[in-house]
Design goal:
312 residues
């Protein structure tokens, strides 16, 4: 009730001090957007995980300053999008999207604009619906979606919702850790969430390619991020030795330990990585350029290309 009252005060302030164009956006946001959000959320034309993904994306975009009418026309139209690849053949793309969402949410540049009160309210409504849909999604989809909902709820400033979503995410993580029969997709999704949480603690994205991107953290940050990365590695160790994410988890642990000055632990992780890859060479700690912005992992010899970008 207090939150609604505050939003009402803010809305009145904007109406009195903003030009007519802003007033039109406020009216559209407060009346028709609520209907659009609820209608889309209840639509059976789109599976629950995809509806959740689109609602989170809608909330994220209007918090970045995009006009509500434009964002709703794109993200709240069941027939407009064809993003089914996110939900086919595993959830790797969705995992990457959720991790990108987490990294982007920390950017002051993306969120430098003032968000109108009605847009803030619309984002909150979309996230409430998204939260319901995440709980109805398959586990490998629910994990990254629940994390993304939590991240955007932080931007809205709804701390109660953040805590609720965080508890749900942790419950899902522990389910995967507890159940030995978890699928490879569920394991990868859980590990991606854990690594993303670790990235948030230190402010460094472990998906960055250079080993030099890792830096020494405070003892509190280090212990927290280490715990999360070890949980992720333990899950990924259930996958085949050829799995890229499993190898990368041990590479990242080695880099984290090296940056922290824990050289014995770093050497231990390097040896695990060498055994997984079958190459005992420090050069595999970094990927190699393969031309045109592409990289190749787990090669000890330099990749040479005999073609130029754009030449076929």
């Amino acid at each position: 009730m207090r939150k609604k009252a505050l939003l009402a005060v803010l809305l009145a302030s904007v109406v009195l001090n903003s030009p007519q164009a802003s007033l039109a956006v406020e009216n559209e946001s407060t009346v028709s957007l609520k209907t659009k959000i609820e209608t889309f959320s209840e639509s059976n034309e789109v599976p629950p995980e995809r509806r959740c993904y689109q609602l989170v994306s809608f909330a994220f975009q209007i918090l970045r300053g995009q006009e509500s009418s434009i964002a709703s026309g794109y993200w709240l139209n069941p027939k407009k999008l064809n993003r089914g690849s996110f939900f086919v053949d595993g959830s790797n793309e969705l995992n990457s999207w959720a991790r990108d969402m987490s990294v982007s949410a920390r950017s002051r540049v993306l969120f430098s604009r003032t968000v109108l009160p009605a847009q803030l309210e619309a984002a909150g409504l979309a996230l409430e619906e998204a939260d319901k849909l995440a709980k109805r999604s398959e586990l490998n989809f629910a994990l990254p979606l629940s994390m993304a909902v939590t991240v955007v709820f932080k931007l809205v400033g709804n701390e109660e919702a953040v805590q609720s979503c965080s508890r749900l995410t942790e419950e899902l993580l522990q389910r995967v850790e507890r159940e030995k029969a978890s699928s490879a997709d569920e394991i990868r999704a859980a590990a991606a969430v854990l690594n993303s949480k670790a990235d948030s603690v230190t402010g460094v994205s472990s998906i960055l390619l250079s080993a030099t991107d890792f830096h020494k953290s405070s003892e509190t940050e280090y212990q927290r991020s280490r715990s999360l990365r070890l949980r992720a590695a333990a899950l990924l160790d259930r996958l085949p030795t050829t799995d890229h994410e499993r190898r990368l988890a041990h590479r990242n642990l080695a880099m984290m330990y090296m940056a922290q000055g824990e050289l014995e632990l770093a050497e231990k992780e390097k040896l695990i990585l060498f055994e997984l890859v079958g190459i005992a060479d420090d050069s595999i700690l970094n990927p190699q350029g393969a031309g045109c912005g592409h990289v190749i992992w787990w090669r000890s010899t330099r990749v040479s290309t005999g073609f130029a970008c754009g030449m076929g």
